[in-house]
Amino acid sequence: MDETSLNAPAALAGVRVIEMGQLIAGPFCGKTLGDFGADVVKIEATGTGDPLRNWRLLKEGTSVWWQVQSRNKRSVALDLRQAEAQEIARRLIAEADVLIENFRPGTLEGWGMAPEQLHALNPGLIILRISGYGQTGPYRDLPGFGVIGEAMGGLRHLTAEPGRVPVRVGVSIGDTLAALHGAIGVLLALYHRKAHGGAGQVIDVALHEAVFNCMESLIPEYSAFGAVREAGGSALPGIAPSNAYPCQDGWVLVAGNGDSIFKRLMAAIGRQDLGDAPDLAHNAGRVARVAEIDAAIQAWTAQQQVDDVVRQLAQARVPAGKVYTARDIAEDPHYKARDMLLTQHTRDGYDLLVPGIVPKLSATPGRVRSSAPGLGDDTDAVLAGMGLTAGQITQLRERGIVQ
Asked: 380 catalytic, yes or no?
């Protein structure tokens, strides 16, 4: 990152975001906006706060996942079951550009914060609502987490070896996809508000729809041919060759499915006969003989180490790569060269290696401006910014309205 971009205003500088979500989808969207300069004020429940603080592995009593998900945010702890806390939230939202929430539909309405009520206070407010099934439709009131969205969106049916149990992708991909769709929606709404008169709007993101939007030709194939795509294991069904192949010390992924790439791949593995076969010159012919092609590639990879395979195929200009573990990522020079591994000093007093920021903007890059807050770390400062005195804040704290 050069000196000019370091000193440039952040892309979202001046955008005020109130985040009322918890766990993954809403907060991941808030993190994304915060990484690019938005002032994100996270409203958490008094007591334990966002459950993500205690998810997976804890260090110094706090999840290391929390340290990533909540960087560049300020924490205000409110007991939203109380009317005075709801009024504080409304006052914060009245001055905001964006509200993010990922509660079950009807929760905001129960607090007297229906979109029409909030727009009466703040006509320019952009409200992002992420939920399992969306704000409308027959399933709107059903509980829904990311895993259910992945199943309904069609992804889980494909993530398996043929005939075996559908498996997780390994991360909360449904929540993350919903968060990214939400961030896109927020940016579109901010642009529309600026370009077309200042009106806010509601963005309705359903977890299953965010997954479904990434399912490529799944439905067109069913519509045109009645074809129901089935699990393909590590292969890319209908596109060949593209698969995972065993080596002596692990697995390697090889994508040799371009016409010219296929020829180079066959030359590299010593199967010029397949590279020169007229019926394998294009994808349709290769799909018809995919088992034979996969067997030929596997026979070559099985005799070698992963690194040797990757090196040889790189020389042949064939896309290939090993399956990275966390250790591989942490030690990889390319990740480091592109600032994708950042050292973040936590408020608990230790340094933590965390993922860098994506996407990379040349003029207004994102950056980590502050580490993840403790519960209610910023309550006093935010309330003072609203005009409350120290005495008023103390009274609210004594009555359990804020923390």
From this structure: no
